């Protein structure tokens, strides 16, 4: 298990939150996905011209990304043969395929990981993000909802659910509720400034009043 623990700790430094930040300009929204275990960081933006939940066009050929993920996953898959229900190992494999934008494969490994360890809110948050990139806002929100039953104030999950509610479902009020709860329960949140900016922008573009502002 020591090898698996090392794998988990390494990924923990890279994957903290799913949906990163959002920038609104001239009425157009652009969002960034963050991972379940990371501090706020920006990754590929989702263009406002794309369908809700659609991922930005990959910079590298999908087949090449998948091939790279297969190679990196090979030693972990070998370990999996003797530890088929190792939740951390399954999640690590899922992360490799997530990073390769092979979201259906990532989802499969995340689901297997959660079968072994259903209370892992970080993996559920990554699962929700993978669904979002496939354009499935409802499944993404469902995954976030379940994650929050285990970790009700998890800032990354609240951030992500708010973004998907807003961009995927047009639910500005729901997004505001999630982000205000994030700030209230996580006053030292690294992405506080970004969330406050998002709240102000959503209020401006939705004409929904924000209490206490």
Considering the chains and any ligands shown, give keywords for the structure.
mainly alpha; elongated; about 5% strand; about 210 residues; 3-stranded antiparallel sheet
Please tell me about this protein's structure.
With 213 residues, the protein is mostly helical. The protein has nine helices and three strands. It has a three-stranded antiparallel β-sheet. The protein starts with a helix and ends in a 7-residue tail after the last helix. The model is unreliable at 5-32 and 39-59 (pLDDT under 50).
Can you count the beta strands? 3
Distance between the termini: 50 Å
Tally of helical runs: 9
Strand content: 5-15%
Low-confidence runs (pLDDT<50, min 5 residues)?
5-32, 39-59
Which percent bin holds the helix content? 55-70%
What is the makeup of the main sheet? 3 strands, antiparallel
Quaternary organisation of the protein chains: single chain
Shape: elongated
Radius of gyration from CA coordinates: 17 Å
Structural class of the helices, strands and pairings?
mainly alpha
The arrangement of helices and strands along the chain is: HEEEHHHHHHHH
- The overall pLDDT average reads 78
Q: List the strand order in the largest sheet.
A: 1-2-3
In short:
The protein is 62% helix and 5% strand. It is built from nine helices and three strands.
Which helices and strands occur, and which strands form pairs?
Elements: H1 2-14, E1 22-25, E2 28-32, E3 45-46, H2 62-82, H3 87-99, H4 103-116, H5 121-133, H6 137-150, H7 155-169, H8 172-185, H9 192-206
Antiparallel strand pairs: 1-2, 2-3
